[in-house]
Amino acid sequence: MPILTRAQLKLALDALPRVELAHLPTPLEACPRFSAKLGGPQIWIKRDDCTGLAFGGNKARQHEYILGDAISRGVNVVIQGAASQSNQSRQLAAAAARLGIRCILMPRKDARFEEVQGNQLIARRFGAEIVPIDPADSAKVAKEAMAERLRAQGLMPAILGMGSERALNLAAVAYIDAYCELVDQFDAMGALPPTHIYVTSQGSTQAGLQAAVMLLGHETLVRGINPMDARNEAYEPPGVIADRCVSAARMLGFDLDVTEEDIENSVDYVGADYGQPSDAAQEAADLIASSEGILADPVYSAKGLSGLVGDIRSGKLTKSDRVVFLHTGGLPAIFSYAGSYSG
């Protein structure tokens, strides 16, 4: 397909239903001390931990499109099921409260469920209905069963997150928009777009960034650092992420050819498992906190940051590169993992 302009892409984005939830544009901050400590490239952090809604995070952008679409279709109940410390669930509960939509969360009774802290505490404060499921149960199956019960009551439910291709594709659309915002910020600085974007992503966020890069004909390399691997029900391999790029572009009326080989999504920094801290993530979080006064949680955003640190140390990135780390948030989880910190 022909290369698009940002104006064309924004016009297509503006045609989709959307609600206002996030504080945008989010800041783009240079991190010279962090870079100097690593002897690495020029680094900026795109602060999507500052989207405002319920302590911020990337889901606020995504819910603008997902819930805009849902409301346009008459949805009056939203259902989400994930880990008990889900960032998605926390921000969905806040968005639903703001929009006057009933919200049902179906967290797994995992190791963090009994301690009502962090994301789970905040989600409850927004009035979400909590319907826990056993750790071994399929969240997809549980959510669909809940949706069927609600339909039988005459309600119009929507499953969000895992199990809803429409919602996941709209989440990617949100990061096509975010990439345009990021390039606008580089333009305002009189700088070229970044050579690399690093992001903690299990699918949609990376897909949106990759789709935008390709639609605009940019050379930016998008590298996703996955916080989970195939052991988790929500894991999406590179081929699925590629398909999500195509689907997101199609929602905007554009054809895009994306293959598995176009997607860089690494599971090398998962550590012991999803939702568990890793030594590399802890070190990366300590580095950014001590050098720039920026927080990253030990089980999600810091795992992506550890991928960036690892690539600098291995020589994969050089001093001539211009790198953006897209901070996806997750900060309330810090309090749930207080015992994992050594100092």
UniProtKB/TrEMBL annotation:
Source taxon at top rank: Bacteria
UniProt GO MF annotations: D-cysteine desulfhydrase activity
Domain Tryptophan synthase beta chain-like PALP: 20-329
Record: active site: S86
Record keywords, A-Z: Pyridoxal phosphate
Residues where N6-(pyridoxal phosphate)lysine is found: K59
Alphabetical list of InterPro entries matching this protein: ACCD_DCysDesulf (IPR027278), TrpB-like_PALP (IPR001926), TrpB-like_PALP_sf (IPR036052)
Cofactor: pyridoxal 5'-phosphate
Family: Belongs to the ACC deaminase/D-cysteine desulfhydrase family.
PANTHER family: 1-AMINOCYCLOPROPANE-1-CARBOXYLATE DEAMINASE-RELATED
Protein name as it appears in the record: 1-aminocyclopropane-1-carboxylate deaminase/D-cysteine desulfhydrase-like pyridoxal-dependent ACC family enzyme
